[in-house]
Design brief:
This protein is an alpha/beta fold and about 300 residues long. It has eleven helices and ten strands. The protein binds zinc ion.
Length: about 300
Amino acid sequence: MIIILMKMRRLTAAAMALLVLATGCTSPTGSSGSGRLSVVVAFYPLQYVVEQVGGDQVSVANLTLPGVEPHDLELTAKQIASVGSADLVFYERGFQAAVDSAVDTQAPKRVLDGATIVPLRTTPGFTGEAGTPSTSALDPHTWLDPRTMIKYASAVAAELSQARPAASAAFQQRADALVAQLTALDGQFSTGLAACRLKVFVTSHAAFGYLAERYGLEQVGITGLAPDAEPTPAHLAAVQKIAQEKGVTTIFSETLASPALADALAKDLGLRTDVLDPLEGITSQSRGTDYPSVMRSNLSALREANGCL
Ligand SMILES: [Zn+2]
């Protein structure tokens, strides 16, 4: 009899565990419950920060699916609804119009806008068709400066702590570890790019303005702020002239956008090509599995192309 009772109690415990698991998986219980906080992010670097800081307390959904290029993102009805039901939405206002609009219409309960943490600036020097100023002049690529990511880590820890105060110590501890890792990365860039034969680098789309400014380099984009912008013949001629005059060795392309223009330019000039990854997504083609590892690949590529000591 005792044995039967014990078996029954074990069975009940197992059933309870299953029930808890199922609840955790299918319905996010939000700030009051014990399930994971559901966080919707707009694109990869934001996903990386939330996963690192949130750990097993969060379930992260990226609106930009793997292999998709985040500029001009379009959202499905299901994705738009997910913005409304999330415990936290982390995006960057001014980058993806569809996400801005979903945040406005869905009014999620908690929103973190990266552009309020590191304001977007207008790109100097790039002009569009026939020399008129480009219409999309706001540069969204703040994440390519590791110090932006450090600020994001602290902001995400604060938001998650408000959403789930009971886990705030864990969030803070994980954010501290991430900040330490990103601070080391920033140091590697500062040291690695301090003494280079060449300051200029030529890259596919003009995603590296914040990185260039942080580390004293000068970016020349073949296209503008978005990868699909068609450069004018005059702009291409200007890029060629700079490359020749400055003694550029390498034309950089990227993983998510077509390398055709960069390849053609390199061929015309008799230069090598290499990859500089704007980290707008991680795929099997990426030279690394996460933000820090791809950034270290970027650093190696820049150091080689620009003859850094
Ligand atoms: Zn971009």
